[in-house]
Amino acid sequence: MSGGLKELTARSVTTGIFLGILFGAANAYIGLKVGLTVSTSIPVAVMTVAIFSALSKREGSSVLEANMSQTVGSASSSLASGLIFTTPALFLWGQDPELLQLIVLGGCGGLLGVLIMVPLRRALIVEEADNLPYPEGTACANVLRAADAGGASARPVFVGLGLGALFKFLSSFGKLWHGEAAVRIGKAEAGMEMSPALLGVGYILGPRIGLLMVLGAAVSWLILIPAFAAFGESSLLFLFSEAPTGIGELSPSTIWNKYIRFVGAGGVATAGVYTIIQSAPMMIRSLRAGLEHLRQRTDTSAQASTDRDLDLRVVLAIVAIVLVVVAVAPQVLGKNAGVPLRIVGAVGVGIFAFLFVTVSSRIVGLVGVSSNPTSGMTIVTLLGTSLVFYALGWTDMVGKTTALTVGTVVCVAASMAGDVSQDLKTGFLVGATPRSQQIGEIVGILTAITFVSGAIILLAGQYQFGSKELPAPQGTLMQTIVEGVLEARVPWGLFLLGAALTLIPIVLKLPPLAVAVGLYLPLSTMTPILAGGIIQMIVSRGAPKKDAEVGADAGVLAASGLVAGVGFVGVGLSAYGFFTGSKPPGFGVELPAIVGLLLFAALGFYLFRMGKRA
What we know:
With 614 residues, the chain is mostly helical. Helices cover 71% and strands 2% of the residues. A two-stranded antiparallel ribbon has the order 1-2.
């Protein structure tokens, strides 16, 4: 339907690379903050059209060229997800990975995620087009069509990005107001972090998820922390481990950091494993479909361009090279890993990557990228790898870091597979060439990985992962799982308490991961997410119901801009500290807290107005 139009052009690739760097670095910051990232395909697509229009008034862009830009640009968000879910554990162990190690880890995982998806594309995207809607991919296709026809505006994204960046700059660099309002009664503490990014995340997620996350955090900060302070030394909470003394004298944040995070880890692990078990039938069907399609592969030389993939022989050769790199390169499994450890690790990467790329590609076709249980897949990978290492006696720090890096490559691969699938669905609907998109994904990976990895290292240098500023919830969870199997010194009483609390939403048929993440994070971090969700609920009341056929409204675009603006400035502040060796000095003036609160409320009103415009 769009034959003859340009796709893989210098303009589309360059624009995609630029936007990928922007959103990749921002998603790394947000992911380390709240343990989740947001899909960037739609804002990247809309911004692409606006940039093309600004650069070339006389010569417009085709929908295929814009689609290629979003394909290249959106790859970085999946890279960020895979790396921030796992690599913080290396920093927590004091291993401090170098930039090159993160680049190679992310690059290997990203390439596997794209390439393993190649032989599955026709079966999932074409043959099951009526059964697998791929919601983000379908929405992005409609946004591209509307933009191509002059019906979509990138203004909300740019304005949101500017407002989010300005607010973060004034509060964190200028220190004009305190970034959090809190109330403390005894050991119970409640508050709200005035973060435009969290407000935007809440608007995107909606009120239901926001409420569940706040409920989980409220249990931790209003019930568990006071209970630990009052009864911790004599309670059964420290079953199978030595109960601490003097816990009642600790501050709420210290109790959270030392003990509550293990409760949250038990909850997140339980939710992840439950999600995998719940998805097991779908996983088995997906794996069978993928294997069946590989057996039925036919000659593709005579196929139309809109149904032509990368040559399977080239794909298999590159996959083999990647696995050899995993086994050989010291930057992947660690320079101290011996040959047997490397071989077992590489085999584990090959098995788990193929399994979870296949599973991820199909699951996102039904529930979308945001609901893809990547953390659950990573937990299963780490459990399986750690158990093998334990059986073989590889339980020292080398064994831990190797198991973690195996999980990193698989996590990135599964995360990338979800993004690639959505992008290929978009391309299928607008008439793009799959081969060109697959090349675009690889370009996006190879260009964004340095900046995403650099952002993680900069943030690690300025903040302590696992702290209130950057909890890195998924990374600290992965650390706990590996240590739990290889050392057996985790406080299992706390871990089991988190598991038991997570059973409540499971029994009530509510999303358990939202509650578990809430258990793990500060209540002040969750409240702005709920605020954003409430704004979305008010906007949606009485409005026509939106689905994948509609696309994104101006509120979602504005929210995505807030997330990107805050994340980008957050990484920039870390770069400032890295190069100057000091923290931002501030402007020397501190305004009353009510000023920051009013400005934050104004951002909420802006989201409301944008949502009402849709």
